[in-house]
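Changelog note: in this version the structure field was regenerated for every chain. One regenerated record is shown below for reference.
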Amino acid sequence: MKCGSSVPVTSPLPVLSFLLWFPLMSGCYVDVPPATPELVSARLIELLADPDPEVRRTAAEALGKVGHQSAQAALLSALNDRDHRVRAAAALSLGSVSGSSNEVALVEHLADASESVRSASALALGEIESSAAREGLILKVLQHPESSARVAASRALLSLDSVSFSKDLVSALRDSNANVRQGVAAVLGETGDVRARSPLVDLLKNDVDAGVRAEAAFRLGKVGDASVLGVLSAVAGKDSDPTVREWARWAIRQLTLSRESGSENRRGQ
């Protein structure tokens, strides 16, 4: 060592911290080359077998920060760890490590018993490299028997850069779980497809859950046009929930401003 005191090693956690810090110390250790990402990943992968779940969790999390391809297989294995914190960390890290098998494993864990793992998997699916199969795999989870998996699937779809309008999304608007219906309504709005207007209007007029109706109003403010102003005005005046009424008024303002802006642009031409 050329500067500073030695690093005491009394437990796996200091070892892990040292591994992550070591590549940054090249200015101090002038005669020792910094560890490569592959070498750091190899050492972290070893820690995924540690008996302490906190060490495994931290190692899984760190592997995502390093982001080396060599960690993919180990992280996929960690998705089946007995500790839900390790599984969640592994799921998030897989979003930073490319691999064709990541999306299949992450979609499977949208049905994990742990909410944290389901959420992490949904986020990671939005981070991995896009593929033609990914959206279809997630859409299938909207038919899962467990409502928690269906909610996670709607979150995963929202995390994608883009989603296509589909009959599967429209069918999911009849889900018995309000959180699923609200999530799918949000996804439909994000498609930007004019075909989303009709099912969103139906939700706004008929859904029994105020959160779903509010979501539909908000999304109509983004994808609607003059044809939905009448429905929005009726809801703004008589819906039983004040939040729904407020979002309907917001949507009316958004669409009105959009129409006025379009008229001005046409006059300017």
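Spot check on this record: The chain has a mean pLDDT of 87. The chain has 15 helices and no strands.
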